[in-house]
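REQUEST FORM: STRUCTURE PREDICTION
Request ID: SP-0412
Submitted by: Lab K.M.
Chain count: 1
Length (residues): 119
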Amino acid sequence: MIILDYKDTRPIYEQIVEKFKLLILKGILQKDEQMPSVRSLAVELSINPNTIQKAYAELERQGYLYVVKGRGNFISDNKNLLSERKEELKSRMIVLYKEGKELGMTKTDFMECLQKIDE
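STATUS: Completed
RESULT:
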């Protein structure tokens, strides 16, 4: 389901959070679908269950999961999450654009950079 990059400088739980967020936002994991148990995912990834628990707690805090006592973790409704994530990305793009302008980059420079990504 997810693959960890042990060369990544981010903590493992953050990588898990990001991977699950992408799966949820892309619709691969659907609303009300049950997440893998902490124990089974820990065994699958060969990591400490506390790391999985920390990732799940963070996903719950951010609104991606909800907990049913005694049953496990489930995917929240992600309609608002997707639009929030898009707004967050737009804000980050604006910050990058302003930083680039301070360094002398033009709008054309940015557009050329974006066009190269699609090639």
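NOTES: Residues 79-102 form the longest helix (24 residues).
Reviewed by: T.R.
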